Amino acid sequence: NLSSNLDKAFQSLKGESRITDVNIAETVREIRRALLDADVNYEVARQFTADIKEKVMGSGVLTSVNPGQQFTKIVYDELVETFGGERSDIAQAHTPPTVILIAGLQGSGKTTFSGKLARYLKQEHKRNPLLAAADVYRPAAVNQLKTLASQIDVPVYSIEQKDAVRVAKEAVSMAKSLAMDTVIIDTAGRLHVDEEMMNEVAEIKKAVNPDEILFVVDSMTGQDAVNTAKEFNERLNFNGVVLTKLDGDTRGGAALSIKTVVDKPIKFVSTGEKLDAISPFYPDRMAQRILG
Amino acid sequence: FVGKDTVDDETLDELEEILITSDVGVKTTIEIIKRIEKRVARDKFVGQAELQALLREEIVTLLQENTADKPAAFDAPLPNKPHVVLIVGVNGVGKTTTIGKLSYMYKAAGKNVLLGAADTFRAAAVDQLKIWSERAGVPIIEQGQNADPAAVAFDTTAAAKSRGSDIALIDTAGRLHNKKALMDELSKIKRVMSKVVEGAPHEVILVLDASTGQNAMQQAKAFTQAVDITGLALTKLDGTAKGGIVIGISHELNVPVKYIGLGEKIEDLQVFDKKAFVNALFG
Ligand SMILES: Nc1nc2c(ncn2[C@@H]2O[C@H](COP(=O)(O)OP(=O)(O)OP(=O)(O)O)[C@@H](O)[C@H]2O)c(=O)[nH]1
Ligand SMILES: Nc1nc2c(ncn2[C@@H]2O[C@H](COP(=O)(O)OP(=O)(O)OP(=O)(O)O)[C@@H](O)[C@H]2O)c(=O)[nH]1
Ligand SMILES: [Mg+2]
Ligand SMILES: [Mg+2]
Question: Closest partner residue to B123 among A33, A147, A253, by Cβ?
């Protein structure tokens, strides 16, 4: 792990009493490598490592009894600070319903998360949510959402026509007329470079003016995470990020890349396939995970 | 005339950045650079164009070839009848969609295809594959949600044999490779298939999402342990991710990339082309 690798790097520096540009190079390389191995974006890793180096110069790290450990702590603290505070808050509309839009790339876990969020809000916040099946393309997508919703006794709004904007609009009207206080809109997975599909989700946003837009990201995403996050943020100015499949063993560096580049809070993490596998985001746990 | 026998640092730095940002990973990038330095020391080069060609060649050699007993081309003769293929991978990578595409391609090449809906766990998974079987115009064996996946795999293999199908494609539930019970279930699915057709499954294809980072190597290793992967399918290459993870995996585990997914429609699949893939890394 990073701490022992740093210890090794420091072995070669025994007897040096002050940190210099030269003797810190090896250590800085180790940190950068650890971040890249953890899937942190190339440019983000470069900048993050440069910031660490600056923090450490003249900080007396080498004079400590266990420099490797102390150095790792500096990296850990910097990661925790970058991630910001613990979060699991969703905006609430002054006049119901609160409209929540779920967006992201194909297969990231949006439909499952929509079910989880509905269950979470119902259970923990006594809300009365309506799910909107706005993925009108994927085979059996509506069916999938309905199956999940039936497990938690939440209704789903869907229509026959392949018109995602219409589903969203009508779901919101339906919620209003039935005095349901929350609408969660599941959308089709889409590529950030698919003009037509990015226009569609921007249309949905324009049509229903969501109180909360969540960008759902697979935690095992590699270098491409910044490209997708940037473009979705450009088009939607989302409020928060959801990291999924954290029950896997991926280091999750994409989380650092995304937070650094779009500076939006990570609000939830998804930790399994069942609908109760949702949890708030804990910065310290994520930092630990990235460090490996 | 001698030519150059070392690569300058600026070129190496540029190469490192291209490879890392393409998800090739640090370890494989270091190996590629070592190989290039050896190659240049031996062969020498004159000018950038020659060096570039050399770089690409070295990367291409890390990608394994498809073999005749597991042909990638859809019109190639299949070595078994039925030729049974198991499709595996973590959640959401594109297994079910890839099977839909493969059915279409095999059928177009005149093969009799049979599908097996052995994802009996996820909501609407069977319905999703049924829709693909309808779109491709191929028969499907399914027992609904919550059936025993090994039973579906067994029945599909048996049905492929009795119906004289040329190829059987069996879908499985997405599963994270660090979940022992799920990986054991997959091993069981594989074992059970060999009981009804000798050597089945003849292929086990691991589906990887091109936007996946270094965790793909752990996935490949764990799935190899559980069911001995014979080939890779790389999906979502129509995005901006380069899929560089397959280079290290193909090289280290000796498995070829068979197909790439380039979209969500039934025809959005191609047989893997090593040179085109490597050129796209630099392109
Ligand atoms: N292990 C695990 N699996 C998850 C998690 N979240 C979702 N999944 C699984 O990931 C796969 C994809 O989930 P979906 O909810 O269908 O993803 P999606 O984003 O709606 O997919 P598209 O609509 O096709 O873009 C399914 O097999 C889910 O069960 C998670 O946190 N952990
Ligand atoms: N853009 C693009 N999307 C793809 C590609 N292949 C699959 N998809 C999409 O990825 C999403 C997930 O595909 P599935 O086939 O359900 O993936 P899966 O591996 O079977 O998922 P689980 O069974 O839930 O583990 C769907 O929205 C597909 O349309 C591809 O090559 N390009
Ligand atoms: Mg979905
Ligand atoms: Mg599937």
Answer: A147
